[in-house]
Amino acid sequence: MSDPLADLFRASFAGDPTHLSRAPGRVNLIGEHTDYNGLPVFPMALQREVRIELRPRRDGLVTLVNADPEFEAVEFEVGVAIPPGPTGHWGNYVKAPAQELARRHAIIRGFDGVLASDVPVASGLSSSSALVNAVGLALAEVNELGLDALEMSEIMADAERYTGTRGGGMDQAISMCARVGHAARIDFHPLRLKHVPVPEDWRFVVADTGVRAEKSGPAQAAYNRRRSECEEALKLVAPRLARARLTPRPPAGYAEMLRSVPDDEVLAVGEEVLPDTLYKRFRHVVTENARVVEAQDLLLQADHPGFGTLMDESHGSLRSDYHVSSAELDELVAFAKEGGAAGARLTGAGFGGCIVALADTDTVDDVVESLVCGYYEPRKLTDRLDQRMFLAVPSAGASFGEL
Ligand code: GLA
Predict the structure, then answer these.
(1) pLDDT, tens only, 280-309
(2) What percentage of the chain reaches a pLDDT higher than 90?
(3) Is the CB of 160 under 6 A from ligand 1?
(4) What is the pLDDT of residues 79-119, one digit of tens each?
(5) Considering only CA atoms, which residue is closest to atom 9 of ligand 1?
(6) Torsion 181-154-255-27 (CA) sign
(7) What distance in Å separates the CA atoms of residue 62 and residue 71, rounded to the nearest whole number?
(8) Among residues 110, 107, 151, which one has the least CA distance to residue 19?
(9) Any residues with CB less than 8 A from the CB of 263 and at least 6 apart, and which?
(10) pLDDT score, position 220
(11) CA angle (325 as vertex; 271, 68 as ends), nearest 5
């Protein structure tokens, strides 16, 4: 059978590829902007993925050719200080895992590889973490580092900061560790996953606004600012909790704080001490955390309407308190609901990108039709519709093997 990626390999290098490294994108079902606050998230991996066909080298060079001709090939020597390319260059997501692994382990072998991805780019579906993971896994395996999926997830989360985004660890963890047919609640510090089966008749519709949310563009500054705002809010609230004797000492993080003090008391103190914007950010984080905890139970009980309601509430909070939605995202959410979705929300960092809507086998066609008629047709975005909108299939995490 002809394999276009292998053909590209033969055209780019002499001989055949020997191994495949793959890592999926993800859709986050609930728990947005909580991971970098040390609080849980609830994503699942997608059937869309980054695939690298490769052949290990004897030296430390990495050469990676992208099947999409828009992206020029990258080539560099693996080391502890790899000079980055221009901001936003895709090669930085290739160099990121290489540098981080080299800082921690002996990386003596690189690889020649060709890459193809069907994860939509800059859409909130973690195309970048899928790339980081696929490259990182390839290098870890080629160098026989013997790292497990959890260790790899943590290293890859640190690695991606090379690109300038101070992300949490959600994307790398779900892309590395996901299980077929399951979503996962992910907790941090220490990193752990609880896999929860997705009921067979549930359907998650992913729909793209068509507005790119470039992680390396203006969205990066807005994202990093949200993160700082959360840190600042905690710094103001934590000592006040201790002074009010609600905690024995100022809690060191959101997780510790929410473990020790009921949400309503935390919010009351927050309202007292925080300026308006900071309070809103803080309120989103506290309430979103509660929604994640509840969502896990509701998924276990296959409570479709209940889970949908939480998704709606999450979107409302991301829009009004966290200010990361947009007119287009709000519109897609509204059309999904009009079509009969049990719930719908923006997914990923926001500022553009995708929504995720919860339907079931009976309602999914109406939801899709409502999105097409309400959003895509009036905007003349009906070309490549299968790229813009698809059903998310809960898929397996990254893997590496011989071809
Ligand atoms: C991006 C980051 C994640 C997470 C989400 C928002 O996808 O990479 O770590 O913070 O935004 O929930």
Answers:
(1) 999 999 999 999 999 999 999 999 999 999
(2) 94
(3) no
(4) 999 999 998 899 999 999 999 999 999 999 999 999 999 99
(5) 168
(6) negative
(7) 16
(8) 110
(9) 286, 287, 290
(10) 85
(11) 140
Distance from residue 126's CA to the centre of ligand 1 (Å) = 8
Q: Is 171 a catalytic residue?
A: yes
Query: Percentage of the chain surpassing pLDDT 70?
Result: 99
Task: Show the tokens assigned to 104.
Answer: 């921690």
pLDDT value at residue 215: 67
Q: What is the pLDDT of residues 10-39, one digit of tens each?
A: 999 999 999 999 999 999 999 999 999 999
* pTM for this model (two decimals): 0.97
Token couple for 147: 């790292």
- Measured in whole angstroms, how far is the alpha carbon of residue 324 from the centre of its chain? 15
Contact assessment for residue 344 and residue 333, using Cβ atoms and an 8 Å cutoff: yes
For residue 297, give the amino acid letter. D
- Ligand 1 center from residue 33 Cα (angstroms): 6
